[in-house]
Here is the input.
Amino acid sequence: MTTYNGQVPGPTIRATEGDRIRVHFTNKGNRPHTIHFHGYHPEEMDGSMPHQYVFPGDTFVYEFDAAPFGIHLYHCHSTPLTQHIHKGLYGAFIIDPKEGRREAQEFVMMMNGFDTNFDEDNEVYAVNTIAFYYKENPIIVKRGVPARIYLINILEFDETNSFHVHANFFNEYRTGTSLTPDTFTDTVIFGQAERSILEIEFQFPGVYMFHAHKTEFAELGWMGLFSVVD
Here is the structure.
C-alpha cells in the first residue's frame, strides 16, 4: 500500500466554499507523487504534469480557494497513475456551501477495491478499504433523521461501481454542487471519480443492507448494514 498520512482512504479534507486551502505535502516514498484536487485551482496547483511531480524527500505546498461547493476527491496524478490510485493514494474533499446544509448524520464512503495477486483484477471490494466492515459493524442511524452519505467511486480495474440500499429510497445530489436533488432512487451507478451526496430518511426501525448491486462485488466484500433505531 501507498498512503497519505498512513491511511486508506487518506484524511478527509473539508472546508467551506471560499476558504483558503493550504496543504503541506512531503513525499516520504521512493517514487514521485502529487496531490491532484478535483475542483477549481490555478494550473500550478494541479499536480498532474511531470514538472509538478514532488520527488522523494521534497515538499510542496498546495494552496487555493475552495470551490465549487460539493463532494470532490483528491488523488495522486503521477505515473504510473493506475498503480498509485489502486494502492491507496486518494481521499475525500468536501466543500460545504456557505449557507450550509440541513442537519444530518454524516458518513463518508469511498468505494474501492484491491488487486491482491497483481493480475490487474480486483479480488477484494469494499467501502473505506475493509471488506465486510459495515456488515460486522453496522452503521447506527436514527429513524426519521436524515443520514447524509458522501459517496465516491475510486475503484480501479472495473469500469463501474454501484450503491444500493434495501427497503428505502434516497435523494441524490450529483457531485453535491446543487442544493436541489437530481433523483429520488435506491440505486446509483458510478464510473471512476463519479460521486454524489445521498440523503436517506429511514421510515422504520430495523437492520437494512446496503451493497454494490453487482453480485461479485458484494460477495467479495462490498456489503454492509444500517441499524436504524428510534
About this structure: The radius of gyration is 18 Å. The mean pLDDT is 97. The CA atoms of residues 195 and 204 lie 27 Å apart. The longest strand covers residues 105-114.
